[in-house]
Amino acid sequence: MKTNDKIQQLRTLMTSKGVSAYVIPSSDPHLSEYIPDCWKLRAWLSGFTGSAGTVVVSKSESALWTDSRYFLQGAQELEGSEIELCKMGLPDTPSMIEWLTGNLSKGETVGFDGQLLSHSAAKTFIADLEKKGLRVDPTINFIDELWSKRPFSPSGMAFEHELRYAGQTVAEKIETIRKSLRKEDCDVCIIAALDEVAWTFNIRGNDVDYNPVVLSYGYISDEEAVLFIDGDKIDDSLTTRLEEQGVEVLGYDDIANFIKDIPKGTTIALDENRVNHFLTSLIPKGVNTKSVLSIPTRLKAVKNSVELENIRRSLVMDGVAMCEFLHWIENRVGKETITELTIADKLVELRKKQEGFVSESFGTIAGYGEHGAIVHYSATPESASEVKPEGFLLVDSGGQYLQGTTDITRTIHLSTPKDEEKVDFTLVLKGLIQLSMIQFPTGTRGSQLDILARMAMWNKGINYGHGTGHGIGAFLNVHEGPQSIRPNENPVTIEAGMIQSNEPGIYRAGKYGIRIENLIVCNKTVDNDFGSFLGFETLTLCPIDTKPICIEMLSNEERDWLNEYHKTVYEKLSPALSPDMKQWLADKTKAI
């Protein structure tokens, strides 16, 4: 069925229910970044397959809002449909609220499925529309009636994340959560984000692409610890081991009635950004909520010593795969047909050879030439460029290993760099190094560190539009919080044990993109009369291309850092390499 036909069927349903506009976000009931096929409602209706975007259909108009990553893709995939592309961030683009109030009359109803918006986002959305005189109904699910061939919910089995990787038992984690609840003067927490559930109960799964999670919810109080999961997704032996740790296992859908039965006088520690509006609406009257940052999210961000040891192991294995990839691309480009898609296939092939490899941690971004300037470029058979022995190739990729999650970007030059290319590459490298070297007092936020990655660029009137660093999971989601390193204010401070990315970049539209990304872990460094200080240890092990470096632009300190980094890369990776690869790595890590 064509998009416009689907929209007309939706309008028929809307009319029958007295709804004048219907909102379909890109989400699932767990508010995941990557969602199962059965929840790709917006993609099914509109034909737009980007990861971010919201469709709104009114009685006579329809529109889709997405960000700059998807302007080109959105225009291509919406072509031939009635849906207007609204480019977020541009001055002439109306907000969704403005569009709705412009297309509806006072008293008309806007509907959406409350499972697909966080409680925080839904509250704001409802309040903004009601201020304009519109009614809002957050209980409407039209797609179930329209999508006749909707995929089934994922049926993969949950499996145990063993103690040798997790470092803490389920019982220990539950007790830590309970202590945090008492500190917050709360009695209960509802765990809705899939990575939080997986971490709390030491389970993993394959229900979502790239993230080793399983569809489930959790609930922790002083007396109870409950995992809500479909019975056919967990076997008896895992259920027994969880019960031995004090966990009750109930059905996935039982979460709704469980919330409805929370006793009056209970105080829930509620992260309104991580629990959907529907679940929150079930909380009975007389039950209090306290808005807090999710306790499991805070706890899992600080890796324990066992997790850190395993993550370091995963990065050695990933570094070996990356070296083999870089060696392959340098030696085969121009001699055989290599495209942005075959690069992604090659990386999976090489990572599969490593111990504990499970899957990619996200879809590989391989941007050759001008495609490198598209920050979250995703090659398709129609768009994939052939890689030739000239210009920049940007490759952002990662793996999920039983030992940990990896995320790395390397940009290499495949011929002789031009002066502009060398300057840009060196500015990016300077940013990476400056953030890597910083020592800072305890209590520092990521927004206070972000300038270090941008300072050299800013001095040249250059900037990049994405954040510099995101948290990363321990065989969990490749993007996790609560910490971040970006200009936007985030009250969460950087703590010892937190792992984040360090990924400055420069993007010249129509020419090339340059990004270098390492993972860094925060460690304690100094305690003295001035307080306690923290610093970063670089975990990623892979050579940085020295061909495009303007050496005279680096300070002595920056040059020393790079040489010491490359020395470490060689020492840690060479024992796992063949003699030929070992010599290649020795050449790539020579001091400059």
List the defining traits of the structure above.
19 helices, 3 domains, globular, 6-stranded mixed β-sheet, Creatine Amidinohydrolase, Chain A, domain 1, 592 residues, Creatine Amidinohydrolase, alpha+beta
Describe the protein's architecture and organization.
The chain is of the alpha+beta class. The chain has three domains: 3-146, Creatine Amidinohydrolase, Chain A, domain 1; 159-300, Creatine Amidinohydrolase, Chain A, domain 1 (3-Layer(aba) Sandwich), CATH 3.40.350.10; 305-588, Alpha-Beta Complex (Creatine Amidinohydrolase). The protein is built from 19 helices and 28 strands. The chain has a six-stranded mixed beta sheet, sandwiched between helices. Strands 12-11-10-8-13-14 form a six-stranded mixed beta sheet, covered by helices on one side. The protein has a four-stranded antiparallel beta sheet with strand order 21-28-27-24. Helix 3 (71-78) links the parallel strand 3 and strand 4 (84-87). Helix 16 (419-437) packs antiparallel against helix 17 (446-458). The N and C termini lie far apart (60 Å).
**Strand-residue fraction?**
15-25%
Radius of gyration: 25 Å
Please identify which CATH superfamily of the largest domain we are dealing with: Creatinase/methionine aminopeptidase superfamily
CATH topology of the largest domain: Creatine Amidinohydrolase
Shape: globular
Strand segment tally: 28
For the report, how would you describe the main beta sheet?
6 strands, mixed
Q: Helical percent range?
A: 25-40%
Helix count from the secondary structure assignment:
19
Instruction: For the record, give the distance between the C-alpha atoms at the N and C termini, rounded to a whole number.
Output: 60 Å
Query: What is the SS-derived class?
Result: alpha+beta
